[in-house]
Amino acid sequence: MKAAVVRGFGEPLVIEERPDLEPGPGQVRIRVEASGLCHTDIHAAHGDWPVRPNPPFVPGHEGVGVVDELGEGVTRLAVGQRVAVPWLGKACGRCEHCLTGWETLCESQVNTGYGCDGGYAEKMLAWADFAQPVPDGVNPFDAAPLTCAGVTTYKALKVAGVRPAQLVAVSGVGGLGHLAVQYAKIAGATVAAIDVTDDKLELARELGADILIDARKDDVGEVLRQHGGAHAALALAVNPAAFEAVNAGLRRGGKLVMVALPAHGTVQVPIFGTVLNGTSVIGSIVGTRQDLAEVFQLHAAGRTKVIYETRPLAAVNASIDEVLRGQVKARIVFDLGTGG
Ligand code: NAD
Ligand code: ZN
Ligand code: ZN
């Protein structure tokens, strides 16, 4: 099977031919059909974060495909079933976090495409308890971006406790943001979308955003404050300055939800404004299996639209460059099912 492998941080990925994998106890093997390119995979390949993966590794945590072999003891999934393999590859199931609905905070978790090989491959392994069944009628190319971009933004809105009639700012309308706009609309909010390219702002408008803010020329905080200030702001742009800009547009009691993970990122949060205005800064990491099930359920019901462009896995390095140059409409999904 073919896989795209990170051999060293900052180096181009290498397409390798590898032997097929045998699933261990509790695992399944998946014939991957579609695999999304999340900006996180680029951070992984560049070694951007304090906790780094160990090359060589196969990135990818939006892999979707069909189960083709069951490991010992697996009864939850069947051969032929379509599943998605998210960032949360597995968690312990026993700790305080796992037992209180916060498995995404488990300290023993293994992350797909980071702590174990991921979806940039024709075949991959997954732990059966964490591979998410994809409902009938949801195609693998839609399912792939939902598996991280979807669940992450859906969860970020839950964490912010967004209610109808609130103003939600979505900073960065990329892979994550184009779904965030839609979930905020489903929650009944008014949505202000912020980006730095005309195409992304136009996409946000098509997806239902009510207010468009061009961070190249507009003062983001000022525009949001003119609208009364945001009840919640999702920071999805890979740029610390964008976090600060949107934080300045919160209304009193508003919540900044940090989601993007720029390399070595730190932001300045003014103490006076935060205290006097009673604002919060919250971190939000992906979502649980239940959150992903809900994301798939909404999509199966026709309530979300996934914007993607397909590429062959062989184009992995060019695809990464496209994302870094901001040239992708929303998400690139590698097509592994048709000989790409
Ligand atoms: P992306 O590259 O598809 O989207 C980023 C968007 O931000 C682009 O549309 C870009 O034009 C826009 N942008 C750039 N500068 C901006 C600015 N100054 N103001 C407003 N918008 C600006 O990336 P993505 O795949 O959506 O991922 C975004 C970030 O979220 C990455 O850092 C990724 O690692 C992180 N992420 C976090 C989680 C989590 O669980 N917390 C999950 C997935 C991804
Ligand atoms: Zn991701
Ligand atoms: Zn745990």
Automatic annotation (TrEMBL):
Residues 8-334 form the Enoyl reductase (ER) domain. It catalyses: a primary alcohol + NAD(+) = an aldehyde + NADH + H(+); a secondary alcohol + NAD(+) = a ketone + NADH + H(+). Its EC number is 1.1.1.1. It comes from the Bacteria. GO terms for molecular function: alcohol dehydrogenase (NAD+) activity; zinc ion binding. It holds the Pfam family ADH_N. Its cofactor is Zn(2+). Keywords: Metal-binding, NAD, Oxidoreductase, Zinc. Belongs to the zinc-containing alcohol dehydrogenase family. This is Alcohol dehydrogenase.
